[in-house]
Structure to design on (581 residues):
C-alpha cells in the first residue's frame, strides 16, 4: 500500500498535467524515491491512483532504465561505459570494483551496501572515466582513488 | 575572438546570478523582444541569421518556428520544449552550457517562446545532470522573482512559465517525438510524422523543440543582429560552435570557436594534440551516431556542409578520438552495444537488427568471428539504414559501422584470421 505522503505527492503531480496518466513516470519516481525500487504491489497501487491498468504502468516502468523493478542496495554505483570512457579505460574501474565488492554488473553485495550497474555516456567525456554513486558524480577516475570513494558510502 | 556563448562562463566557478547576468547585458535581448518586436520580427531575424539547430541535425531554427500556426484559432497552449536530454555518447556540450550559464538559456527561451507565442515551456533535462538541475531551478526562481517569467513579463501582454522535467533514462527520449511521449508520461516511442510537432505536439498542441545550444543563441542574435551572427562563422554557416574533444588528448574539453574551424586546429592547437605515447587513428566527430573521420581527412572544416562532403556528419561536434592503443573493433562494439540497448523496440530492423550487429561484433572481437560476418554487417548497414526504420536511431547506429567496416577492414580481418584481438595480450 502506498503511504499517504506518496499518494499526496502523486496527486500534486497529476495537477500539472491535462490528465492523470501523464504523471505516470513521476509517480514511479516518487515511489522509488521512498522505497528504493518499484515492486509489483507498487505498480498496482500506482495504477489505482492514476486510474489506468497495472500492465500500462508496468510497460512504462520497464521501459525506463532509471526505474528499478528489482530491489537495489542502499548505494547504486553507475559506471559510465560510453565510448569516451572506454577509450580512457572504464574497464579497469569496473574490474577493480567487481573484484573489491565481489559482484558483477547487475548484482548487489550481500550486505545490501552496493549495487553495480553500467550506465550510458554520462556526458562527462572530458573527465573520463566517470561514474556516479547515487546522485554524486566522480570523474578523472584512477583505481587508486576508488577505495576512498567507496568508504564515503555506508 | 568573440565567444558569445561561453564568454560569461567562469572556469570551475559558479555561474552568474541574475543580477550579474543583467549587468553583463544578458537580458537586453529579452527587453528588446518584449518592448520593440513583433513575434514575426523575431522569427524573421533568426531566419535571416541562418541559425542551424545545434542538436545535431542542423535544421534551420527560424524555419522550424515559422511552421507554428498563428492567429486567434490556434490551439492553446503552445509549447516550447528545450531538449536538454544530452545522451549521445561522446557529447558533453549542453552540460557545459547548463552548468555554466543557466540565465543565457532562460533568456533565449523567453525570446523563443515569444516568437512562437508559447505560454508554457519545459526543459527536458537528463536525470544524471544533477548539478545542472540544481543550478537551473535556482536560476528559474530568480527569473520569476525579477519578473522575467510568470504573468505579464516586464509589463507586457506576454506570459510564460518554464518547468524543469527530469528524465527517467533512455537515449531515445532525445528524439523529439519520443521526448513528447515521455513528457506525456508514456513509453518514449517516436511518433509518425506528419503531423509534425509544430502542428500537433505535446498533448496535441503546437510544439517547438530546440536544443540547449540553439536556444542559448537567441538572445545574442536579437541584441547583435543577423549580420553579426553570420560574420562569426568562417565558411558560410554563421555563429561560433561549441566543439568538444575527449579521448587521449592533452587537453580534453569544450572549445568555442568560429563555425567552420578546421578539425586539425581544434585537436592540435586547442586540445593540445595527442597524449604522449598515443597516436590518432580516427575521430568520431559529433557523437556515436556519426561516421569516422580518418587521420588523412583532419583538414576538414567543422561545419554541417563540409563534414558531409567527407562522408561524415557534424552531429553534436563533440569529438571522440580513437587512438592506436584502442582496438577499433572493440570500439565499434561499444558503440553498437549502446544503440542495441537503447532501441525502443518499436520497429523490427532496429529491435532485431541492432542486437545481431552487436553480437557479431562481439564474436569478432573475442576471436570467434567468421569472414561472412563482415558481409552480414554490411547488409545490416542498409537493412537498418535510412528508409527502413521508424526513426533515425538505427540509421544513426549504422553510420559509424559502415565507415568502420571500410576504414578498419584490415583490423577486422586480423581478428578473424588470428582468432583473437591483436590489442589484447595472449595470457
Amino acid at each position: 500500500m502506498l503511504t499517504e505522503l506518496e499518494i499526496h505527492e502523486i496527486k500534486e503531480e497529476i495537477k500539472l498535467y491535462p490528465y492523470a496518466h501523464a504523471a505516470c513516470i513521476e509517480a514511479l519516481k516518487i515511489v522509488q524515491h521512498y522505497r528504493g525500487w518499484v515492486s509489483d504491489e507498487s505498480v498496482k497501487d500506482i495504477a489505482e491512483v492514476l486510474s489506468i491498468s497495472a500492465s500500462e504502468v508496468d510497460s512504462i516502468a520497464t521501459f525506463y532504465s532509471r526505474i528499478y523493478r528489482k530491489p537495489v542496495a542502499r548505494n547504486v554505483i553507475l559506471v559510465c561505459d560510453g565510448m569516451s570512457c572506454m577509450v580512457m579505460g572504464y574497464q579497469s574501474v569496473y574490474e577493480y570494483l567487481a573484484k573489491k565488492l565481489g559482484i558483477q554488473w547487475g548484482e548487489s553485495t550481500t550486505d545490501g551496501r552496493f549495487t553495480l550497474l553500467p550506465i550510458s555516456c554520462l556526458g562527462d567525456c572530458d573527465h573520463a572515466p566517470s561514474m556516479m554513486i547515487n546522485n554524486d558524480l566522480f570523474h578523472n577516475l584512477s583505481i587508486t582513488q576508488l577505495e576512498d570513494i567507496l568508504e564515503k558510502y555506508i | 575572438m568573440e565567444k558569445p556563448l561561453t564568454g560569461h562562463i567562469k572556469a570551475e566557478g559558479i555561474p552568474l546570478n541574475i543580477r550579474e547576468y543583467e549587468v553583463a547585458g544578458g537580458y537586453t535581448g529579452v527587453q528588446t523582444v518584449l518592448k520593440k518586436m513583433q513575434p514575426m520580427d523575431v522569427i524573421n531575424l533568426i531566419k535571416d541569421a541562418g541559425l542551424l539547430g545545434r542538436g545535431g541535425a542542423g535544421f534551420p531554427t527560424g524555419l522550424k518556428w515559422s511552421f507554428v500556426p498563428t492567429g486567434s484559432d490556434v490551439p492553446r497552449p503552445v509549447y516550447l520544449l528545450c531538449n536538454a536530454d544530452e545522451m549521445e555518447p561522446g557529447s558533453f556540450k549542453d552540460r557545459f552550457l547548463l552548468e555554466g550559464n543557466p540565465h543565457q538559456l532562460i533568456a533565449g527561451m523567453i525570446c523563443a517562446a515569444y516568437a512562437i507565442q508559447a505560454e508554457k515551456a519545459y526543459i527536458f533535462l537528463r536525470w544524471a545532470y544533477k548539478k545542472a538541475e540544481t543550478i537551473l531551478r535556482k536560476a528559474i526562481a530568480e527569473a520569476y522573482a525579477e519578473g522575467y517569467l510568470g504573468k505579464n513579463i516586464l509589463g507586457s501582454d506576454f506570459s510564460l512559465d518554464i518547468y524543469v522535467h527530469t528524465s527517467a533514462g533512455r537515449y531515445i527520449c532525445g528524439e523529439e517525438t519520443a521526448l513528447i511521449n515521455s513528457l506525456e508520461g508514456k513509453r518514449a516511442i517516436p511518433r509518425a510524422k506528419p503531423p509534425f510537432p509544430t502542428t500537433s505536439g505535446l498533448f496535441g498542441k503546437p510544439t517547438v523543440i530546440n536544443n540547449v545550444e540553439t536556444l542559448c543563441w537567441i538572445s545574442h542574435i536579437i541584441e547583435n543582429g543577423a549580420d553579426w551572427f553570420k560574420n562569426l562563422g568562417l565558411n558560410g554557416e554563421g555563429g561560433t560552435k561549441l566543439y568538444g574533444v575527449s579521448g587521449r588528448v592533452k587537453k580534453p574539453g569544450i572549445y568555442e570557436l568560429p563555425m567552420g574551424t578546421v578539425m586539425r586546429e581544434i585537436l592540435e592547437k586547442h586540445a593540445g594534440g595527442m597524449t604522449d605515447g598515443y597516436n590518432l587513428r580516427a575521430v568520431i566527430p559529433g557523437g556515436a551516431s556519426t561516421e569516422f573521420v580518418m587521420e588523412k581527412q583532419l583538414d576538414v572544416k567543422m561545419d554541417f556542409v563540409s563534414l558531409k562532403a567527407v562522408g561524415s556528419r557534424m552531429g553534436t561536434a563533440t569529438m571522440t578520438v580513437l587512438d592506436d592503443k584502442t582496438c577499433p573493433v572493440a570500439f565499434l562494439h561499444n558503440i553498437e552495444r549502446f544503440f542495441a540497448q537503447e532501441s525502443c523496440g518499436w520497429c523490427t530492423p532496429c529491435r532485431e537488427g541492432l542486437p545481431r550487429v552487436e553480437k557479431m561484433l562481439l564474436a569478432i572481437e573475442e576471436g570467434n568471428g567468421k569472414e561472412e560476418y563482415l558481409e552480414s554487417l554490411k547488409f545490416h548497414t542498409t537493412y537498418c539504414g535510412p528508409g527502413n526504420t521508424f526513426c533515425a536511431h538505427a540509421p544513426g547506429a549504422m553510420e559509424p559501422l559502415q565507415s568502420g567496416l571500410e576504414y578498419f577492414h584490415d583490423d577486422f580481418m586480423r581478428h578473424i584470421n588470428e582468432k583473437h584481438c591483436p590489442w589484447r595480450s595472449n595470457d
